[in-house]
Design a protein that fits this description.
Helix content: 25-40%
Strand content: 35-45%
Low-confidence stretches: none
Structural class: alpha+beta
CATH class: Alpha Beta
Strand order of the largest sheet: 2-1-6-5-4-3
Shape: globular
Number of strands: 6
Distance between the termini: 52 Å
CATH topology: Nuclear Transport Factor 2, Chain: A
């Protein structure tokens, strides 16, 4: 697919993401999708590797169980050939604690026949952990005193 033919599909996928319309989102996911969201799975069960549409759907359900997503803003969207990259600001309320969390994520996807066949997402999970737990972790002095003056 060329950029001109894939851009409307990519934009529709992210519009469904902004609207939190998981049913519509799933129409953009290939049956054999390879999906990876980097991060600590022991803290956030929706992180990790998923294969297939059903596994991705379960990931979205897990997000909904843990987070009340209040804003999903696509700050930057690039499309080139069969690939897309997006920088996103995600704001949510952690259901277990009622704490507001706002993080950035970068998503890199590849499309085939109008569907996502590969997704790689990188989240600032350290920031997510700090916001979720409600405290800053100042590990630098212990781990690298030479960098801290």
């Amino acid at each position: 697919m060329t950029e001109t033919s894939i851009r409307p599909i990519v934009e529709a996928f992210y519009r469904a993401s902004v609207e939190r319309d998981v049913e519509r989102l799933m129409t953009f996911i290939a049956d054999d999708v390879n999906w990876l969201v980097q991060g600590p799975m022991d803290l956030f069960a929706f992180f990790g590797q998923r294969h297939g549409r059903a596994a991705v759907l379960e990931g979205y359900r897990e997000i909904d169980r843990r987070l009340d997503v209040t804003a999903y803003q696509v700050e930057t969207l690039l499309v080139d050939g069969d690939r897309a990259a997006a920088l996103i600001r995600l704001t949510s309320v952690v259901r277990a604690s009622d704490k507001v969390m706002s993080v950035r994520t970068s998503q890199f996807s590849r499309f085939r026949d109008g569907k996502i066949i590969q997704m790689r997402a990188i989240v600032d999970s350290y920031d997510m952990v700090e916001q979720t737990l409600g405290r800053v972790f100042d590990l630098a002095p212990e781990l690298a005193p030479e960098l801290c003056g």
